[in-house]
Amino acid sequence: MVRILYFIVALIIVIMAFFYMWLRTEQVRYGYLISQRYEHLLELRRTNEKLKLEWSLLTSPTNLQEIAQKEFSMRPPKLQEIIFVPIPSDLFRNSESTETESYYNLEPTCS
User: Would the pTM count as exceeding 0.85?
Assistant: First the structure.
């Protein structure tokens, strides 16, 4: 009877040892997995910053003007080529004062 009790206790200790070893290997495996994911996250953030910088460069007015002049042979308009379009006063009827009105010094007309 005592022999069976020692066998059961030894079996429980062996099972607990295997469980502990499995738990440690899983902990190490998930640690590596988290580390890899974190490195990937940092790489994505660096790529995002590079893309934001490239976007800023490509959409800058200076760069756009340079591209327009070199690739499309565009140039700023001459004064004779500019056409001023009058804004009808009824455009702002039944509306509150807007930035456009104040820019053109127009007052809204109320009906």
Answer: no
Q: What angle do CA 22, 27, 29 make, to 5 degrees?
A: 95
Dihedral sign, Cα of residue 4, residue 10, residue 16, residue 21: negative
Is 109 within 8 Å of 90 (Cβ atoms)? yes
| Residue 65: how many other CB atoms lie within 10 Å | 13
Judge contact between 95 and 108, C-beta under 8 A. yes
Q: What angle do CA 68, 76, 106 make, to 5 degrees?
A: 120
Q: What are phi and psi of 94, to 5 degrees?
A: 60, 35
What is the pLDDT tens value at each position of the chain, 111 positions in all? Answer: 889 999 999 999 999 999 999 999 999 999 999 999 999 999 999 999 999 999 999 999 999 999 999 999 999 999 999 998 888 878 777 655 555 555 555 555 554
